[in-house]
Amino acid sequence: MLSPLFTHILLFSQLSLLFIHTIAFYRISSPFYPHLKISKISPYTQSLNTSYSNFYVLANLISLKYFCLKHYIMNRRLQEHNKDMIASAEYRATEMKYFPSKLEERMISFLDSHGIVYEPQKIFYIKDYDGWIITYYIADFFIPDKYIIVEVDGKFHDEHQQHDKKRTREIQEHYPGIEVLRYRWGDLSDSYKMNELLYRIR
Q1: Helix, strand or coil for residue 134?
Q2: Helical axes 4-26 vs 43-98, angle rounded to 10°
Q3: Residue range(s) defining the domain that contains residue 143
Q4: Domain with 160 in it: what CATH number?
Q5: What are the b/e assignments for 26-50, b being 16+ CB within 10 Å?
Q6: Which residue from 99, 142, 158, 196 could staple onto 119, CB 3.0 to 4.6 Å apart?
Q7: Are residues 182 and 114 in the same domain?
Q8: pLDDT score at 15
């Protein structure tokens, strides 16, 4: 779908062309178009020009109306689609926020004890060039000050490593500069790795 700015540019160009051709076909004298002033036009030629001009104006108006209607319908579909996707994402994020896993509870305790500012179950939307939300990912913890995502992976992720890599790649492509850190159950008991995490997010 076209962006609003590009749509307005197209509409303006269509209206400008319509105005110029109307002046040309009707032979309207204008200070902006002095070369269009014609002193003698035969009635037959004037009749043809007028008929063709009327047809041209009507065709352009119909085309313009169709274009506006098509853009309006596509824009409404986009809004409804994105609204449904956002509602679904927010529902899932809220549910996961109120019912965290044991791994997430340990990470929450760790972050809170060190005074780290974070956003639990942060939603990251993946959109195409036209603004349609293709999918979304919910990160366990997002550190806004450092632009870092912290994920805690349980046994479920052992069988979904390819999906996790794809998810990380898509987030980093759509949110340039963001960093994704992953930690397992054993990592939360490793003081060296936790101190390293603390050093990176402080």
Answers
A1: strand
A2: 170
A3: 100-201
A4: 3.40.960.10
A5: ebeeeeeeeeeeeeeeeeeeeeeee
A6: 142
A7: yes
A8: 59
C-alpha closest to that of 187 among 158, 143, 153, 139 = 153
DSSP E strand boundaries for 17-166: 119-127, 133-143, 148-152
User: Residue 184 to residues 71, 112, 118, 197: CA-CA distances in angstroms?
Assistant: 48, 19, 19, 13
Beta strands (DSSP E) in 99-189 are 119-127, 133-143, 148-152, 179-183
> Per-10-residue mean pLDDT for the chain, 202 residues long?
56 59 48 45 47 59 69 84 94 93 92 94 92 93 95 72 86 94 88 91 88
Is 29:37 a contact under the CB 8 Å cutoff?
yes
- pTM value is 0.68
Q: Rounded to whole angstroms, how far apart are CA atoms 193 and 23?
A: 75
pLDDT of residue 75: 82
> Of how many residues is the chain composed?
202
